[in-house]
Write a structure and sequence with these properties.
631 residues, mainly alpha, TPR repeat, TPR-like_helical_dom_sf, TPR_rpt, TPR repeat-containing protein
């Protein structure tokens, strides 16, 4: 049924058969005299009829069966059970409020057996969840856990109640409920017990001694064989406790362990990647933070606020990551270019050896997995089908056979090595040919030939690297207010063979980064800029200090109005020339972002869409704080 939770029994013909049997029993054996049923086994038949229809998702007929038992006969030992099942059916029909009213009446008036009381509270809890009344739902499920005799269900009820208490941030009640689950130990599924341990630790307020003791206990749990499939949960909780203590290095190790041991828990993968991203971001490793935010998005559903929030975080780091990669790549190539030919050959020989070892290890791992796949892997077969009657299972078996045995002819003694030798040798020969073909390219000469030889190519690499370093310096200051990293990248620009038109801009940015905290260093860069580049636009910016800021802003507004008029009148080249000559003089004014945007539009009109996009990217870096305030 569309929009409904599909039950395991749907499509199972046994439910239809049960319904037929129940109807026949009622038709043939019902004995009603003066409105009273004399055959009390008919009550069982009506209960069977209602449950069979319920599990087949035929909810209206199911409700009819339960109501018939409640209204048409007098006393019946199934009265309370039928009433509770009728309310379950109301829930599936979307009648949550009716179910809540009726269940409250049942619990307050009827004398219920212990198991019936547990069923009633559990159904009431589900009704409250449907109505998003989580406090009431948690209390109802907690009561269901108290009354049920089924230990597995008791753990389940307590666990859901604990999750709801945690959702409402009631840590004390959540801790109590999780503790109830933990106390059941081996009487419940181990995954539930491990999750409860993690939930208890998540909500418990520890003293220092208690936390140290629990961390030791966690380490013991992690070493136990029966927990090998649940290490992702245990390692993640271990990391959470360490991070709360400020031990971020050890916490990051445990988050990575959690990811390594996580097979299918995508929600936990997302949380671990996000935690690692935050740790790297706080430690100012923005590239690693970007990669973990990117990995987080793999496990976060589309069209959610969470995804939108993470995408914005990642986008803020995308340009930084791109520029850092460019710097690292160009530095690597330039360092190789500076080596002698013998040094280059020695470097690539070591590199080729490491590549071959890595490829060999991967091949061994693949062979190991395929060799063990036939023995270790199992295919779940649903229903009563024999192996060879299930096409999917047969196909899987053929694939596993081929991976383990290779191509074998249909003949006697097919497993003997001598019989399979020809096929094996053919496969081996093919592999050797492929390996030989690969090795022809894995030579030092092949890699050395890829290095740039033309001086103009080398200069281009240096210029790209220097420009990237400058943009990184500007970005670290404007986006993250990270003076230290900004200064580090900008000072490196000056230490390289930097082109003359980039040097005054770099000196000016260094002056701006130092002026607040280390004015004596700012003075050094100011003097260099004024003495070495007295006629540059950046020198004019520093010299114009005697003009009031308000006067500068007024001049900038007038200039913006004039250039905008030129642009709108179609004088694009004139607008371009004015911006090129005078825009830098208004860089520190309130209309600087508008001027930059107008300049981008002018460039787009003259040079095309690529130039326009590049200018917009520059604006997002130079005026990041202004844009964020505008949002």
């Amino acid at each position: 049924m569309s929009g409904k939770i599909q039950l395991d029994g749907i499509g199972n013909e046994h439910f239809e058969r049960a319904e037929e049997k129940a109807i026949k029993a009622i038709q043939k054996h019902s004995m009603v005299f003066k409105g009273e049923q004399r055959n009390y086994k008919i009550d069982d038949a009506y209960m069977l009829l209602g449950k069979a229809r319920y599990y087949n998702e035929r909810f209206f007929p199911a409700l009819e069966a339960f109501n018939h038992l409640l209204t048409n006969y007098g006393k019946t030992e199934h009265h309370n059970e039928a009433n509770i099942w009728a309310q379950k059916t109301n829930l599936r029909l979307g009648k949550d409020k009716i179910a809540i009213t009726n269940l409250q009446k049942i619990l307050s008036e009827a004398k219920l057996k212990r198991q019936d009381k547990a069923e009633a509270y559990a159904t009431l809890g589900q009704a409250y969840i449907n109505q998003e009344q989580y406090d009431a739902a948690a209390n109802a499920l907690y009561q269901a856990g108290k009354f049920t005799k089924n230990k597995s269900l008791r753990g389940r009820y307590y666990f859901i109640a604990a999750q709801l208490y945690e959702k409402k941030r009631d840590k004390d009640l959540a801790t109590t409920a999780y503790e109830k689950v933990v106390q059941l130990n081996w009487k419940i599924p181990r995954r539930l017990w491990v999750e409860a341990q993690a939930g208890w630790a998540r909500n418990k307020t520890f003293t220092f001694e208690e936390k140290q003791a629990f961390l030791k206990y966690l380490s013991k749990l992690e070493k136990r064989y029966e927990h090998k499939n649940y290490l992702d949960v245990l390692y993640y909780q271990h990391a959470e406790l360490l991070q709360k203590d400020g031990n971020k290095v050890s916490a990051a190790d445990f988050y990575r362990k959690s990811l390594k041991n996580n097979q299918q828990n995508n929600s936990l993968k997302a949380q671990a990647h996000e935690r690692l991203a935050e740790i790297y971001f706080d430690s100012k490793d923005y590239v690693a933070a970007y990669h973990h935010f990117d990995s987080t998005l793999v496990y976060v559903p589309e069209h959610t606020f969470k995804r939108l929030f993470l995408e914005r975080k990642r986008e803020n780091l995308a340009k930084i990551t791109e520029l850092e990669f460019l710097v690292k790549q160009n530095d690597s190539v330039l360092s190789l270019v500076k080596m002698s030919q013998n040094e280059q050959r020695h470097f690539f020989e070591k590199h080729i050896t490491s590549l071959q070892k890595e490829a060999e290890n991967e091949r061994k791992e693949e062979n190991f997995q395929s060799g063990n796949g036939l023995i270790l892997s199992t295919v779940e077969q649903k229903g009563d089908k024999f192996y060879f009657y299930n096409p999917m299972t047969v196909s899987y078996g053929k694939q596993q056979f081929q991976q383990f045995w290779g191509n074998r002819k249909l003949q006697d003694n097919w497993r003997w090595l001598s019989v399979a030798g020809k096929v094996h040798n053919d496969e081996k020969g093919t592999f050797e040919q492929e390996k030989k073909s690969e090795n022809e390219h894995l030579t030092p000469d092949f890699f050395i030939a890829q290095l740039p030889k033309n001086p103009s190519e080398i200069v281009t690499l240096e210029q790209e690297r220097n420009q990237a370093l400058y943009q990184l310096g500007v970005s670290y200051k404007s986006k993250f207010n990270d003076n230290q990293l900004a200064i580090n990248r900008l000072e490196r620009v000056l230490s390289e063979n930097v082109e003359e038109d980039l040097k005054p801009a770099t000196l000016y940015q260094l002056y701006k980064n130092h002026i607040e905290f280390t004015p004596e260093k700012a003075k050094i860069y100011e003097d260099q800029l004024l003495s070495q580049y007295p006629n540059s636009d950046y020198a004019h910016l520093l010299k114009g200090g005697e003009t009031s800021q308000e006067a500068k802003n007024q001049q900038a507004r007038q200039f913006l109005t004039a250039v905008t008029t030129e642009f709108e009148n179609g004088n694009v080249i004139e607008a371009y020339n004015q911006l090129k000559n005078q825009q830098i003089g208004f860089k520190e004014t309130t209309v600087a972002p508008q001027l930059a945007l107008l300049s981008a539009q002018v460039q787009g009109r003259l040079k095309g869409i690529a130039s326009y996009k590049e200018a917009l990217e520059t604006i997002s870096i130079d005026f990041f704080q202004t844009l964020r305030k505008a949002k």
